[in-house]
Amino acid sequence: MNNAEKKPRTKREPLIYITKRSDLSLKKSLLIRAAVILGGILCCAIITMLLTGVNPINVFGSIINGSFGTPGKLWNLLQAAAILLGISVAVTPAFKMRFWNTGAEGQVLIGMLASVACMFYLKDSMPSFVTIIIMLVASTVAGALWAGIPGFFKAIWNTNETLFTLMMNYVAMQLVSFFLLFWDPSHGYLNPLNSDTKNGWLPTLFGRKQLIIILIVAVITALVYVYLKRSKQGYEISVVGESENTARYIGINVKKVVIRTVLISGALCGVMGWLLVSGNSHTVSTTLVGGNGFTAIMVSWMSKFNPIIMVFSSLLVCFLQRGAGQIASDLGTEMPGASNIGDVLTGIMILFVVASEFFVSYDVHFRRRTEKADKEVEKNVHA
Amino acid sequence: MFKKILALSLAVLMVSGLMIGFTSCSGGNEDFKVGFIFLHDENSTYDKNFIDAANAAAAALGLTKDQVIMKVDIDEGPECYDAAVELVEEGCDLIFADSFGHEDFIIQAAEEYPAVQFCHATGTKAHTKKLPNFHNAFASIYEGRYIAGIAAGMKLKEMIDAGEFTAEEAKIGYVAAWPYAEVISGYTSFFLGVRSIVPTATMQVEYTNSWFDIALEKTAAETLIAANCKLISQHADSEGAPKACETAGVPNVAYNINTSSIAPNTALISSKINWVPYMTMIIEKTMAGKGNEIPYDWCGGFNEGAVALTELNTAVAAEGTQEAIDAAIAAFKAGEIKVFDTSKFTVGGQTLTEYLADVDTDANFTKDTNVIHDGYFDESASDKRSAPYFDIIIDGITVPAAN
Fold it and tell me: Which of A200, B13, B189, B339 could serve as a FRET partner for A327 with CA atoms 20 to 30 Å apart?
């Protein structure tokens, strides 16, 4: 743009150039998003046809059927989205502070392990709600600890938190493997605990076990939203994230904020681990977080760290994931590789969604040698 | 704008509601639906064996495509329960799951939906849970492995007779997935089959601790070959071991797949479970409204057609192998031979007269039932359970030291 400012009408203008949009009406931004998503769907359709020869209408039918085919599927979609949302919201305070916490997977997993350990040793020695509270406390502490270690090292010795938190994931996985073998040396596999007494299980509301998970995540999301947007600590997080020097200048204790925020982030991940155990799996294995800890990072970024937008982002991601699963089930047994098509389509759609943010933030111009184009350039340059 | 969207989505909802209503109103057998839950898709030989059987049974019974719903890549976790609930809601009257770790989640669904029949392969809990709508199944695959062992033994004998190595050097290698009873029962029966031909044979086992890992299985086979194993067999689901054997020119015996196309110069034979008879039976029973008559535990053998051997690769096999196989199958059908005949093996130099196995699954893996009677270890007995419980390391077999 600086170039253009000096010479607004060079002989060889770039073929494409971009400018930052400053004022975009909501209607137009929605329109751009819709257009890009439509483009994504079209792209998916073409790729499906080229790779499989299957009618893309059938594939889209499968995707929709995967989430809305039966009431149970809809509930499962909502539950999957709630779990992803909960973890996304949990990682957000750290990310907003520009603390690259890639360890959510491990923090949730260690939270699960803590809850399962409580169930394994307490069995039904206490009333169910007491067990649940003990599990919650244990998981919260475990998650906070798992994030707190890298957070502490970062604050004191400025270690690289991306690598540190990432490595902590593998430590958590190995710990889970260790305990599974410790508890069951012959199989290394733990069946759902207390399936007869349901001790430590969250109650099933209105006949749907998913409901309580959704409700708890809704509360967490609301709390984090208020914390980030309305509290003093939330403001401190944004300042530290924008510029540590500014934060120091206005008298924020950066080390304290970093450690506190990372502990909160980890604790929330731990709470999600508790929710996964108490509300859903009632057991633990290294795969039960299922990559949600990593997907959550994408969701958090895609939503610009806004918990309310995350509701929609996680719904979209889970809708696509479940659609991918449905494609695998509908076509996978007759066409090898169909189960991977679903993942390819999910990837394409997410790429397009991320791209739509680009088109919302920036205006793309093509070189046109017309009066109108020249005027437009002029207008943009002087705007 | 908002009103339009609302109206549109309501319309869509109502139409789909009508469609669901219509599909569930028709009567008779066209209404019948069966759902399958598979751990992986057909890239896994284990699941492919089930998928092929499900398709064959459905085709033989004239089920249409809409009456069969298959869910693949369902992990051994709560998503298995979710998948089962989805299948129930899609109208399935019968649901089948194929992996050991699915069991508890299937039981959870079975308790909630008593009107739907649930069948689970390789599980252990139906005979103690006693739910009228939950059933386990397996096959006496140890008999198939014993016969594959006979074929392997005859090949070894041919090599000994040709002077390639002495009878004392006849060591076989076994690529095993996990140290579970199912696997131990499998390699022991294979070993006893070999020993029925070459009494001096020994066996070395390598575990991969994974059901499906091409690289690990290949490495394990190479390790065994380097340790002077003259023949390799396996209980793991990939083609890693047969490929390694073909490269090294070592005869091999596989499981569940015909490997003669992968290893044309070394593949001997494979034993496999044929699930078609079981699937046919459960679909027929459920369609007739007699789902509760499906046995808690079903263990098919040669008589039921549940255990099978793939075509013998005559280019590799020793002369007379096919005749020996046919004779052994006939003997099993007539009940004349027992694989785990206690006079044919020793443990720590002793002959077993009594052995408590963990037949009734509980949290502490208590050894609860004596399974030796009339001079043999009664594996997968009809009055006990279908899934194997032979978990003894017998003399002549070396396993890696537990770490």
Answer: B13
